Backbone:
């Protein structure tokens, strides 16, 4: 199996893309810790992984709370003696016009989406350094490169994650810690839709959304790469999942197979190649 012997932690894994990522990683042999603030949905995700035969633990986690994140990482590393992959999928994104966006609402969104990535990286850093490397993956979207009405905070978060990844990847390379983002690359269920709401939706309404577990195969592929191969880059799950379906996990690499933004991918590679410390 692609990830046999690996350990992964996925935030925001109670439903949707996070649950699909966790399921895909477990199906490829990883032991997976799923986390969320919604404990009922978290239990459902854990049950799904268990039914697949995966080895899973479920821990409640508010990613904006650094001590809580550190405690979660200690529990995972204490039980499984390592932590190879962190996927920061948790997000809080109510759609609000700027004039109605209170300071408290602004900072809650920022602290979950961008602060959560910092907290996660900080919490796993020493573990990954000590074991000789690992992968930290944030979630990208169209809001990483464009702006949308009602999404001032969300777009700030997604743009900010790209800057975090670009800069930290330069510092992390000596420790073989890869820092990347991965966008869905296909339409997915809106984050705000709960498991209960999804179960009541007509099949026709859901038909345009990609299966999150299929998109999760892209995260499994990236997590299986040597950390020193790719870092500081933006990937997209849709094209990777399609490539895996057509060619298998060992496909011949081409940027057009792994991202919707191959020109940006190439530009980042050129920058890293020319960068002088």
Residues:
């Amino acid at each position: 199996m692609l990830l046999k012997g690996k350990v992964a932690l996925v935030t925001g894994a109670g439903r949707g893309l996070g649950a699909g990522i966790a399921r895909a990683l477990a199906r490829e042999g990883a032991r997976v810790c799923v986390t969320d603030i919604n404990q009922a949905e978290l239990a459902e995700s854990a049950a799904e992984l268990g039914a697949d035969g995966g080895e899973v633990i479920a821990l409640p986690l508010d990613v904006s709370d650094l001590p809580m994140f550190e405690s979660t990482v200690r529990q995972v590393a204490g039980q499984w003696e390592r932590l190879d992959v962190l996927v920061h999928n948790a997000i809080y994104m109510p759609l609000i016009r700027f004039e109605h966006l209170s300071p408290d609402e602004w900072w809650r969104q920022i602290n979950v989406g961008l602060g959560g990535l910092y907290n996660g990286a900080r919490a796993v850093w020493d573990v990954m350094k000590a074991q000789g490397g690992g992968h930290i993956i944030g979630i990208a979207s169209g809001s990483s490169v464009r702006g949308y009405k009602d999404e001032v905070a969300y777009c700030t978060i997604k743009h900010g994650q790209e800057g975090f990844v670009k800069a930290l990847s330069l510092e992390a390379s000596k420790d073989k810690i890869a820092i990347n983002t991965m966008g869905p690359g296909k339409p997915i269920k809106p984050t705000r839709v709960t498991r209960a709401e999804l179960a009541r939706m007509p099949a026709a309404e859901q038909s345009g959304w990609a299966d999150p577990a299929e998109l999760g195969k892209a995260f499994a592929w990236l997590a299986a790469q040597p950390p020193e191969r790719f870092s500081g880059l933006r990937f997209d799950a849709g094209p990777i999942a399609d490539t895996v379906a057509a060619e298998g996990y060992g496909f011949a690499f081409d940027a057009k197979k792994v991202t919707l933004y191959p020109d940006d991918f190439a530009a980042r590679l050129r920058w890293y190649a020319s960068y002088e410390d």
